[in-house]
Structures are given as structure tokens and as C-alpha cells.
Amino acid sequence: MSQKNCFIGQSGGPTVAINASLAGVVAQCKKEGYEHIYGMINGIKGLLEDHYIDLGELFKDEESIENLKATPAMYLGSCRFKLPTINLAEGTYEKLFKKFEDMHITDVFYIGGNDSMDTVAKLSTYAKTVNSSIRFIGIPKTIDNDLMGTDHTPGFGSAAKYVASSMLEIFYDSAIYKLNAVTIVEIMGRNAGWLTAASALARENGATVPDLIYLPEVPFDTEKFLEDIREKFKEKSSIIIAVSEGIKDANGQYLDQDSKYTKKDAFGHVLHSGTGKVLETIVYKEFRCKVRSIELNVLQRCAMHIASKNDIEESFEIGQFAVTSALNNETGIMIVSKRESDMPYKVHYETMDVLKVANLEHKIPVEWINDAHNDITPALHDYLYPLIQGEMAIKYTNGIPTYLDITHLKNNIVKE
């Protein structure tokens, strides 16, 4: 049997599930007899700087792989590095492929979102031009759920579970006072509103929040927004609103470009702020009631303590399937999940040409948003519901979760 060696990289923003995919790759590579399983530290950028480790040596048994699977964020670190176009930086590709050749690399697995799939596409394209037999496999991840071609992305289900749970807890916090109040919860999603839509899952156990949901897939109308609140005040005193950070008006402008509502400095310059803060100002000016905006920000990305078991298990399986696909001599692909049914929930995995995925965005179908553009439809609920099911058994030490040590990332210091 010929020698098999691979590189695995992680790139983009962290999630709860990206290490589960890494664990799946490592586990399957060990099963298939890979001699070396190298991990790029800080993605392709770190590899260009000769920064990598041997994962096969670090994860020798099932227990260590399970610990990796249950550790959030990115064990290998990340980068926000976009490979340049081949004809503009051929030396970069020559350097990478020389390293691959010297280390007898047969496969490269890259875990990430849109930009990471762009990296896979460029590497596999270059490989063809130099007749390299190295196989390049993209493994999806992103809490935004905006990758094309796949039913959903690893990491999204856990982030959705966090958003829905947080929304429920905000509801309980807000319900104790007898006064008119508006709470605006800003949720990640610049162009795709999947995570904000998931806030509706807070209603599963009888809660009625969020009262209103605004997504970037449809234009945001400020006057309609205020009218929606006015109507809700006829029903209740405390209103909770979920809003995507990327909502835009009919002209495609972000809300903090609207000088009618945005705060300005002494010179009249617009002070750019978060969407939630802009809406907080708008609501207060109109209703003069208690208004609070909450930005979930990075908290929704790596909350392993409330991860979706379905999400973690699927992420691990996708990592395993990536290795199987490579050994089937596939390259220039991304692993995708295909849903067979909602109830009972069932998916299977396939491969897709990464060129059909890279740099594209999967947004919520408009027909899954209600006609008033302030809530989701039952079809979107049925899509979301299975993705948050199941809970992970987390190890605790001294009262807080126990995760893998990441001191190997201690060199992530930017030197002047």
C-alpha cells in the first residue's frame, strides 16, 4: 500500500463544531492508515510560515479524539488570508506545492466557510496545471449557514440553539417588570438571516418571543418597523425583537447610514454603531419608553455548553466522509449534507464541485419569510427545528467546562 500523508487546516471564524470535523478527519485518517496527519497552525497562512504540528502524535486514542470533538473554536487556530489569484502570485503556490512534495502529502483537507472554499478551489486548480495528484477537499463550517449546495453548515445548529436559548432567557428577564419596554437583540448575519430566524425556536416550550423578527433578505422599512411595535403595544407591554446585523433599507443601505436617526458628533459626522444601537435610538425617539439593545456578538459562536448534539455528530461524520471521498480519488470538492426528511430527521452526505460553492451565498428563500416581513413561516421553522436537537455531555473541572489545552497557539503574537 502506498504511503498516505495529509494536511488539515482551519480557517475563518470559529464555531462549536469545527473541531468535531477536525476530529472526524483525524479519526478516519488513523483508521485508513495515514502515516502522518499534519495540522496547519493558523491555516494556509501558517503553513506558508512553516507552522504546523503532527496531529497523529497528539491524538493517539479514542478518548483524546472525543476530547477534541467536544472542544469549541479552532484547535489549529485560524487565519483571514485569501490566496491571491494564481497568475498574480505563482511563487506562493510553488512554495506550497514544494512543501507538499517534500513531505509526501497526498491529501489536503481545509475546514471553513466561503473564503476557505475559495482556497480549496485555487489549490485544486493549480494542482491540475502542474499535474499534481494531491487531492484537495473542502469541509464546510460557518454559523451563518450561508454556504451554497449544502442543506446546512456545521456549526450553525449549535449557534442557532444558543440564539434560541438566549432569546428565551431574555424573555424571562424582561417579563418581571410592569412597564412599557422594548428589547432589541442583534444577531450575526450580514447578508443571510438564518441565525436571526432561529430565534423563533425560543417559542418551542410556550414562550411567545421574539415578537418581531427582521431579516436581511428583505428590505427594512423604518416606518413599518415602528408601526409593528405600535401594534404589539396594544397586546403587551414588553416587546422583544430579533434583528439581523445586516438589515438594509430598500436602497441597500445599512441602517447606520440613515442620518435621520443616527447619532452624530460635534462636527456632524455620522457615528457608526451596531444595528441594535441604531434601532434603540429610533425606538426611544418614537415611544419614549425603556429601550435596551443587546448584541450577542461572538458569544453565539463557541458556546459548547449548549451545543446541539446533532450538529456535533454530523460535523464529525462530515470529517470522516471527507477522508473517504479523498480515498475515492475525488478532489476540488466540498462535502455537503442532503436532507431526506424533517420528521424523522435524516440526512446523508455527498460531494460537490467547490467551484460551484466558493464565494457564493446561500440566503433564506423569501417564501420562508412572512408577507409582513417581520417573522418566519412554518416551513422555515420545520427546517430549523431538527438542527438544534440533542445535548452534549460536557466535562467540568472546578465548576467550569474542561477543554483541550491550546498553548500551541501561544505564538499568535503580532510582532511589530
TrEMBL record:
Pfam families: PFK. GO terms for cellular component: cytoplasm. It is an enzyme of class 2 (transferase). The record marks 115 as: Important for catalytic activity and substrate specificity. It catalyses: beta-D-fructose 6-phosphate + diphosphate = beta-D-fructose 1,6-bisphosphate + phosphate + H(+). It comes from the Bacteria. Keywords: Cytoplasm, Glycolysis, Kinase, Magnesium, Metal-binding, Transferase. Mg(2+) binds at residue 114. The active site is at residue 144. Substrate binds at residues 142-144, 188-190, 245. It is found in: Cytoplasm. Belongs to the phosphofructokinase type A (PFKA) family. PPi-dependent PFK group II subfamily. Clade 'B2' sub-subfamily. Homodimer. HAMAP family: Phosphofructokinase_II_B2 (MF_01978). This is Pyrophosphate--fructose 6-phosphate 1-phosphotransferase. It comes from Kandleria vitulina DSM 20405.
